[in-house]
Give the backbone structure.
Amino acid sequence: MKLLLALLGALAFAALPLVTSSNYIIGVGISALIFTVAAAALNLVYGFTGLLSFAQLGFWGIGGYATTLTVMTFGGNFWLGVVYAALLNAALALVIGYPILRTNRHAFVISTLTFALLVALIARDWVTLTRGPLGIPNIPRPQAFGFAFETTPSFYWVAWAFSVATIGFLYALCSSRIGRTLIAIKQNEPLVRAQGISPMPYKLASFAIGAAITGAAGGVFAFHLRVIDPGFLDFYYMQTFLIIVIIGGAGSFWGVIAAGIALSALPEALRFSADFRMIIYGVILVAAMFVMPTGVAGWLRERKIARMRQALQ
Amino acid sequence: MTIDAVYLLQLTLNGIALGLLYALIAVGLSLIFGVMEIINFAHGELLMLGAFAMCFALPVMGLLYWPAMATAIVATMLAGFVIYEGLLVRLKPDEFERSILITLGLSIIIIHVMQYLFTATPRMVDSQYGFDGVEIGAIRITWTRVIGAAAAVAAFAGLYLVLRYTQFGRAMRAIAQNRDAALMVGIRPRVVARNAVILAAGLCGLAGAAISPIQLVTPYMGQFLIFKAFALVIIGGLGNIPGAVVAAIGLGLVESWIGGFFEIAWQEAAVFVIMIAVLFLRPDGLFKRGGMRVG
């Protein structure tokens, strides 16, 4: 039932360029799709595995730069660039994930945060590679089989195909035995150990897959913006992903997807002042943590359980 | 490359002054972590509020350094009180992720409200000392740095005495060492946590006031420093106050030396590289935490 709904939703989204000819609305649609993918990846890491990782922002930036540089500097194409971005991020996540996953959860959060900051500093300071604060403008649109995805509506379908594929993959992963093991690790790690499952490989895999998908999403987003500079690593993106996951309900797969689509439209609707928008984001974040810490999905689940209890009495 | 002794000494002194300011921030974080087991993401914003308070108080007080600094400290302590009573008091122990997200939201709000009110334009802060310096041989250090360092040292001495010899401080250490036992002997965690947050905010205000004549004051200044302070707290061992001080002074020295001899980009990256190396070798930080130690 849920899958059928999701399939219908995906098809409805595919039809967006047929309904409207406004490049602005289609652009918002592209952002919504990509942010949803990044939030779903964060949900895998935080919602399912219980690792609050700020490193997603770093992976997002590395993905954006890796894809862009593959095309602009190393002469590859967009598709290869996205694959490289995913592979590079997965490898990097394994390397930094191993030492920081051995620490306690407090140190983990802070280390991932510092990693994200370091990536932003490198993007700014490694001028020979990234061109520093000037950024890399005029990123070309991708091509395939002689067809250039030149216009915004045609690029929309690239983003659509990408997000449907990754969300499908994440759903298969999260609803499999691996996904259930991840939830078990989040809920009770000693119990998982007692069952003879080593948590470390699962945590590392979740961290690396989350990193790869976030990086690929960053790559697609850079080609949507068609310019990349250190602003791509603005903390704003991390906040957006986090708010999507928290409002949707950490650990609820479809809740986060729905929140991703709904909340990506919100910053566009609230476009009166950048500062004011961030203030509202902050207020939403603080309020959500107090009013419904398990997100909309958790709130609905509680309501459902309460109703079932009442029916039993 | 020959190393000039005077240049090296100059860098070392600058590094110590910088490290002491880092230590003020890291100690506050460590104190709050020790008592409440939470990380205060909005800590850098307290520092920024302190710097802004200094920035506005100095012209009003005829550029007098000390009264303006006292104003900044009182202002941030008040802010700490409001933050604790408004938000942090609702957190239960062991709600670490929630504490991060709440204080993160708070930090976003504070930064952007300040930017909305006072714009992002960097401000220069002038004090009665201006850019005068003290000269020892060929070495020259500005008074604002000397005073900042001296105030930090005095603050650490005061903190040590408070935590070691007063009931106020002993209660904090008791909560950090064993919450249940502290409850049993009649210590109220709520009051102690509030005191710890206010004390940490005051230290942050002192750091902000001391930094403002040295650096430009912007709404984002807290963010840059807080990320470093987070890393320092990890390197020193979470909740370990002397560990944080040692790590902070060490980082100040390393950054100053790197800045003096290598490319500036490495200066900012140093803290992260050191942190990863430390975590590889000692996952609990350089100085393992055994309750909140003061000596």
Notes: Strands of chain A lie at 143-144, 147-148. Chain A has one domain: 2-312. Chain A is about 80% helix and 0% strand. The first helix of chain A runs from residue 2 to 14.
